[in-house]
Amino acid sequence: MSGKAIGNQSGWKPEMAASDALIAAPTATGNRALMLEEPLIFEIGSTDRTGVDLADVPAAPSRLGGMERATPIGLPGLSEQETVRHYTRLSRQNYAIDLGLFPLGSCTMKHNPRLNEKVARMPGFADLHPLSPQSEVQGALAVIHELGQWLKTLTGMAAVAMSPKAGAHGELCGLLAIRAALEARGDARSVILVPESAHGTNPATAAFCGYAVEDIPATPEGRVDLEALEARLGVGGPDCDVAAVMITNPNTCGLFERDMKKIADAVHAAGAFVYCDGANFNAIVGRVRPGDLGVDAMHINLHKTFSTPHGGGGPGSGPVVLSEALAPFAPLPIVERQADGSFHLVEEETAGADHGQAFGRMVAFHGQMGMFTRALAYILSHGADGLRQVAEDAVLNANYILRSLEDVVDAPFGGTGPCMHEALFSDKGLAEGFSTLDVAKGLIDEGYHPMTMYFPLVVHGAMLIEPTETESKAALDQFIMALRSVAERAKAGDESLKGAPWFAPRRRLDETLAARKPRLAWEEAGGLAVQAAAE
Ligand SMILES: *Cc1c(COP(=O)(O)O)cnc(C)c1O
Q: What's the number of CA atoms in the CB half-sphere (13 Å) around residue 67?
C-alpha cells in the first residue's frame, strides 16, 4: 500500500460542496441516483401477500387454554424478491467498518479478521447446545479455558470470570465480587469513587449495586488527582466508607494514568479495592500487565480489544480478571482443567472447594461462546509478539492523527505529551455559533461515521478519535484531509456546514426527541415516526 495521501484520486470535483440545488430539485421517486429510498415494511407489505407457499394448517384442538389471538396478527407480507430488496436497501443506508474508517473513540472499531468468523462458524462450535453433556463438548470447554489462561497471562491476574456478556456486565461482575469480599470480612462500605472522565457505565454500575457514587477530581493534565483521592480516602481502616475506586486506564482522555501504582497502594492502604475499566486494553496489551499495577478486578471487552463485529448493540463479551484477594468470590460457572487433562464445568458451589465463596451466577449458561472462539482465534493468530504490536500500532496511529490535526483543531492535552490509543480534541476555536455537532455532520457528507462526540465530559465539545491499529497510513491521511477540511469550514464560519449532512438519506434529525419520545410501534396513519418527529 502506498503511503501517499489519496484524497480524491479521480480529480473529479463536486460543483458545489453543499448544493441547495440538490434539495430544490427532488426526484419523482425520492431516490438520489443509486441511493434508494425505502419505506417501512408495514407500508409496502400487505397481509394478503407472502413469499412462501405454506400448506393449510390442519384443524387440531387448541391447547392454548383460550389464550389464542382473537384477531389476525397483521404482519406485512412481501414476495421473496421484495423482501430481499427491502433489507438490502436498508443495509445500504448503514455505515460499517467494512465500508470505511470508523473513528468512534472508546469503541475500538477495528477490522474483524475473517479468520475469526470462519472459526466461530465451525459446526463443532456453532451447533453446540448449551445443555450438551460435558463429555461431548470438551473442545468448547478447552477453548473457554485456554482463552481464560491467555487473559490471565496478558493481565497478570490470578483468576478470570468468563461469563459476563459485555463491558458493563463485567463491571457489575467485578463490583459484586468486591462486595462479596467486603461482606466476607464483615466490612460494609457504601461509596464507590469514580473519576469525572469515566464512561457512563461506571457510575451506573456502582449505583445499580446500591453504592453511593462520588467524583474523583481530575488534574489539569486530564489524569486522576492523586492528592484529592488520598484526602478522600483518609486514613482508611474501619471508618473508611469507600468500597472501591473505578479507574479507566488508559483513561477516556486517551491518557495513561501514570500514578496507577500509587493510586492502587493508597486504595489498598484504605482497605478498599481497585476496579479498572479495561475497555481500553487495546492500547496496552502486551506492554502493561494491570495486575502489576495493583488492579483487583478488570473487565476486558473482547469485542473491542480482541475484535468482533459489535455495531448496533451486540454481541459483546466482558470477561473479568480478578486478583488473589477477589478470586475466591468469582461467579460460576468456572471451567477447570482436571489432572487427566479433561475439562470440567463447575456449576455448583461446593463448600470447602476453591469456589465455595462464589457470589452467584451472571448468566444462565456459559457466556458468549461465539465470541470466545473469535477472541481466541484473534489471539492465536497474532501471538504474544503480534499482540504487543497491536498496542504499539494503535498508539502510533492515534498520535499521527493528534499531531496531524492539532494545528487546526484544539487538542486540550496535546501539549502534555503523546496520547495513547485515542486522540482528544475540543470545540475551542470554532467560529461563533459552530459546534462539535456541525463538524460531526460535516464528516458524514465526507463519507465518514462521526467520531465520539461530547465525551469525555471533562472537555468542552469533545471529539474523541480512535483510529485503531488496523487503518493504513493512506486511510488515515484521507480521514485527516476530510476532518481538516470540515474543521476549517467550521472555523471560517461556513454557513453551509449548518445544513450538513446534505448528501445523507436523512438530514438533521431531532435526535433528542427521537431518544426521549421514541415511537417504537408503527401506527397506520403515522408513517415514519422518527422522521416525522424531526421534519
Ligand atoms: C465500551 C466501554 C464500556 C462499556 O462496554 P460495553 O461492552 O459497551 O458494555 C465501558 N467503559 C469504556 C471506557 C468503554 O469504552
A: 3
| DSSP character string of 244-274 | EEEEESS-TTS---TTHHHHHHHHHHTT-EE
**Domain 117-377 in this protein, CATH class:** alpha beta
Confidence at residue 235, expressed as pLDDT on a 0 to 100 scale? 65
Mutate to test the pocket of ligand 1, among 108, 201, 280, 458 (most ligand atoms within 8 A of CB): 201
Give the SS3 label for residue 498: helix
Residue ranges of the domains in the chain?
117-377
What local confidence, expressed as pLDDT, does residue 228 receive? 92
194 three-state secondary structure: strand
Supply 388's cell numbers.
504487543
Distance 381 CA to ligand 1 centre (A): 25
Handedness of CA 176, 182, 186, 190 (dihedral sign): negative
| Atom 7 of ligand 1: nearest residue by CA position | 167
Q: From CA 281, how far away is CA 109, in angstroms rounded?
A: 13
For residue 199, the CA-to-ligand 1 centroid distance in Å is 7
Q: What is the DSSP string of 27-92?
A: -SSS-BTTB-----HHHH-BTT--SS--PPPPP----STT-S-SS-----B--HHHHHHHHHHHHH
Give the predicted TM-score (pTM) of the model. Answer: 0.89
Buried b / exposed e along 141-180 (16+ C-beta atoms within 10 A):
bbbbbbbbebbbebbebbbbbbbbbbbbbbbbbbbbbbbb
**8 Å CB contact between 422 and 248:** no
Q: Which atom of ligand 1 is nearest to the CA of 108?
A: 15
Atom of ligand 1 nearest to the CA of 106: 15
**Segment (H or E) for 423:** strand 423-425
Q: How far is the CA of 240 from the centre of ligand 1 (A)?
A: 29
CA of 9 to the centre of ligand 1 (A): 37
Atom of ligand 1 nearest to the CA of 168: 9
Helix (H) / strand (E) element for 201: namely helix 201-208
User: Which residue's CA is minimally distant from atom 3 of ligand 1?
Assistant: 167
Q: Which residues of 312-348 are buried (b: 16+ CB within 10 A; e: fewer)?
A: eeeebbbbbbbbeebbbbbbbbbbeeeeeeebebeee
Per-residue model confidence (pLDDT) at position 34: 87
* pLDDT value of residue 9: 46
Residue nearest to atom 5 of ligand 1 (CA): 167
pLDDT, residue 315, reads: 84
Within 6 Å (CB) of ligand 1, which residues are found?
106, 166-168, 199, 201, 248, 252, 277, 279-280, 301, 316, 318
Residue count of the chain, please give it.
Answer: 535
| Ranges of residues in the chain whose predicted pLDDT is under 70 | 1-24, 235-238, 312-314, 351-354, 525-535
pLDDT reported for residue 22: 52
Helix 201-208, helix 167-184: angle, nearest 10? 40
What's the gap in Å between 399 CA and the centre of ligand 1?
Answer: 22
Number of alpha helices (DSSP H) and beta strands (DSSP E) in the chain: 16, 12
Q: Which atom of ligand 1 is nearest to 166's Cα?
A: 7
